[in-house]
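So, does this match?
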Amino acid sequence: VSDSMVGTEDELRWALQGGDHDAIAEKITSENVNVSVGGRSPLHHLADYGHTQMVKYVLSIGANVNAVDKHGLTPLTCAVFENHPEIVCVLISHGADVTVKSPDGTPLVDCAESDEMKKLLA
């Protein structure tokens, strides 16, 4: 986390995981929107925890929709694994690569548990 960011990495991680709109808007700017927070971008955390409005916010200020985290996951992979179809739609509409594979090489569509999710990825 850069020195220009207000607060500690832990504070930011908690804000992202909790979907704290005010704290995220205060701490995340277009200059640091792709910063590593525990080896993952803010978008990874938000997609993982299902915070659709904040996913839209960080994308609007320049988040890298196809960023790869320390686990080899993209935000889309996180949203599929956690079954967040609304976030999957948002990410795809912002250019997320639906051809990515899971870290074990499985096509993302085959990782989807629901028929709804499979249709989104097809």
